Amino acid sequence: MPERGLVIAIDGPAASGKGTLARRLAAHFGLPHLDTGLLYRATACALLDDGRPLDDIRAAVEAARGLALCDFDEARLRSRELGEASSVVAAIPQVRAALIEMQRSFASRSEGAVLDGRDIGTVICPDAVVKIFVTASAEKRAQRRALELASRGERVDYAHILEDIRRRDERDSGRSSAPLKIADDATRLDTTDLDIEEAFAAACAIVQEKAALAG
Fold first, then answer.
1. What is the CATH number of the domain that holds 82?
2. Belongs to which family (predicted)?
C-alpha cells in the first residue's frame, strides 16, 4: 500500500489509456481519483447548452468557476463531440487558471489522490511522487476510441476519429498555457503494444518503485 498522502500524476494525449489506468490504480491503492479532462468537458458542455461559442472567454471562465465535481453526467461528457469541444476550451489560459485550484485542492487530500489529464505532472502537481506519461501511437489510440464509442452505441468513422486525435494532439501540445508535455521526472509508458492488464501491471510497478524511493 502507498504511504498516506501519495499523489499519482498521470498525463498523456487523448485516448492513450491514461484514464483507464488512473481509475484502476486508484481502486488498487485505495485512493480517490479525478479525471481532470471531465472539468474541461463539463465547461464546454455548459457553453454548448447555453448556445455560447467555445471561444467566448468570459462565458467559459464563468462556466469553469461554476462547476461542481458531484454534478457530472459522465456518459454525456465522454461523447466524441465534447471531447473535441473540450480541447478548444482547454486551450484558453483563463479557463485553465480558473480550474487550477479545484484540481490542487483535490490533490491535497490527506489520503493522497490519483489525477489524470494533460498538465498534472507539469503544472497541477509538479511535486507528485509518482508521475507517469502514458502514450501510444495515434493509430492505436484512434482504434481504441472507435471501440469505446461503438460500445456506447455511437456511430464510428475511424478516419474521422484519427483526424480528431491528430488535431487534438496538435492543439494540446501547441497551446500557450500548460501545453501537453512529459515532465522531466516522469516515467514514460508506451501502451501501443500492451493490453490493459499489461499496461496496468507496468503502471503498478512504476508506482511501487517511485513510492519506495520516496521512502
1. 3.40.50.300
2. Belongs to the cytidylate kinase family. Type 1 subfamily.
